[in-house]
Amino acid sequence: MSMRIALGHIDTYDDRTAAFARQLGLTSVQLHAPSNLPSDAGYWTYPDLRALQDRCARDGLTIEGLENVPAALFDKIQRGAAGRDEQIENYQRTIRNLARAGIFLLGYHFITTYVWRTDMRAAGRGGARVTAFDLADVGAGNALASYKLTPSEPIEPPITAEQMWANYQYFLDAVLPVAEEAGVRLALHPDDPPVDAPLGGAARIFTTPAALEEGHRRANGSPAWGLNLCLGTVSEMDGHRSVDEVIDYFGRANAISYVHFRDVNGTVPAFTECFLGEGNLDPAAVMARLASVGFDGFIIDDHTPAMTDDLDTWGDTSSAAYCSRGRAHAIGYLQGILTACGRLPAGQES
């Protein structure tokens, strides 16, 4: 295998998204808490996972991995609340079922109140719609509150950073042995936005390169621990410097599972998402650095701006909104960089 572009962060897999992938010359997909997988049992069942795998195969596409179980299956784990042991047992079932279905990567986040934005329709280049965050405006609440992974239950009393680290360790100790046995890798997403101030009543702990390294150390060398390298989130920390630091550490540790390739203008406490090539990062330099540390996984676009006639920014999870001009632009941009790096596998040149 080598670095490759996949169609990722798919919330609803259907004929439209399958055709979109093929038209872009892609051969694999990554799905994000997909609506195709029922969660009534408290976990993802083998028959449902197998059916999704078979449907993608019929469309000529392979599944690179899945990301994020529904919030209702994971919230007590993050909060350390009563009922977390049952959720952990169900998460273990999901891991085993994934392996049985031939899917060996599961992304997750430990952001108790999920991603925050203070504006979901900010003005980007040429009037494109983008999302933005400003810590000074969080008193008005999360503009992403309606998103499917944003929890609805308030947190009382507040959860401290010390409690969050303890909850994370409890989770790792319970699931990593199961993941190792099943051959499934669990990939951690950094906290977005990476601010120390609690948002919605819970502290955020994966907000710096050093904190991500601490998360890795707490896995005690488990091969089942990986990083979902969200470049946009790491760019929000300290721009190119933080991105280079994370790539160097985790790349050399062979711990980068896959990459969310996006960027922002600015760093915390305020930033705005943007098109690739106009933000904090030099995308070609980032791609070259990934290659230099031996990364050979898949890359997906992420949080693309909504261009003329696109339905909305990434808050809209419909396939009609997903298959957008903004996404096609981002994927074509990434394919061009990868081609220039001489790393694009045969069949993805177009």
Write a structural description.
- Strand 3 (28-32), helix 2 (46-58) and strand 4 (62-67) form a beta-alpha-beta unit.
- It is globular, with a radius of gyration of 19 Å.
- It has one domain: TIM Barrel, CATH 3.20.20.150.
- With 350 residues, it is of the alpha/beta class.
- The model is unreliable at 346-350 (pLDDT under 50).
- The protein has helices at residues 15-23, 46-58, 75-79, 84-100, 161-182, 209-217, 231-252, 283-292, 319-322, 325-340; strands at residues 4-5, 7-10, 28-32, 62-67, 105-109, 119-123, 129-134, 185-189, 225-230, 256-261, 264-265, 270-273, 298-301.
- The strands form two sheets. It has a nine-stranded parallel beta sheet. Strands 6-7-12-11 form a four-stranded antiparallel beta sheet, covered by helices on one side.
The CATH architecture category equals: Alpha-Beta Barrel
Give the overall shape, derived from the CA principal axes: globular
Q: Per DSSP, what share of the residues sits in E-state strands of 2 or more residues?
A: 15-25%
**Could you name the CATH topology?**
TIM Barrel
Our count of helices gives: 10
- Give me the count of strands: 13
Low-pLDDT sequence parts:
346-350
Can you list the strand order of the major beta sheet?
Answer: 1-13-10-9-8-5-4-3-2
Alpha-carbon Rg, integer: 19 Å
**Overall pLDDT metric:** 95
- Class inferred from helices and paired strands: alpha/beta
CATH superfamily: Divalent-metal-dependent TIM barrel enzymes
Helix content: 25-40%
Structural domain tally: 1
Gap from first CA to last CA: 19 Å
CATH class: Alpha Beta
Order of helical and strand elements = EEHEHEHHEEEHEHEHEEEHEHH
Report on the biggest sheet: 9 strands, parallel
